[in-house]
Write a structure and sequence with these properties.
Distance between the termini: 61 Å
Number of helices: 1
Structural class: mainly beta
Strand content: 35-45%
Strand order of the largest sheet: 1-3-4-6-5
Helix content: under 10%
Low-confidence stretches: 120-133
Mean pLDDT: 79
Oligomer: single chain
Length: about 170
Amino acid sequence: MSVNKVILVGNVGRDPEVRYLNGNGAQDAQAKVATFTLATSERYRDRSGETRENTEWHNIVAWRQTADVCERFVKKGTQLYIEGKLRTRSYSDAQGVKKYTTEIVVDTLQLLGRRDETQQGYQQPAYQQPAYQPQPAQRPAPQPQQNTSSAPIDLSLGESGTDDLPF
């Protein structure tokens, strides 16, 4: 058994590039693919106590409906949650040199962060109710007891100077 799973949370480095590929069947006549980069950052303190940041750039590839979502809503700077598979492929550049690239092929994509009002299809909610709101108990409040006797109350600690309470 083997597992090829990648989970990333990061910010988009450039607007997605969307292309249409001709398929070899009627069903895949126009397959859509979106490619973009995603930055993930890690902060840590070095031995001298200074804060360092290491940014890793990932090549992201989204197909079909996920590519539609990317085309409509993903822009440079958008924060995303991505689940996918790691793929390495080779290609030849313009000079005929064989090159390799590693990509994350998206299975699940989720937009994170606040929704930008300038993006089409998004509207800021005026109010969002919390998911859980505890209800107050429905018992009547206890009435304070009043001392109706006119005799004074003895608050002394007794002969030993200590009270006899267990705590």
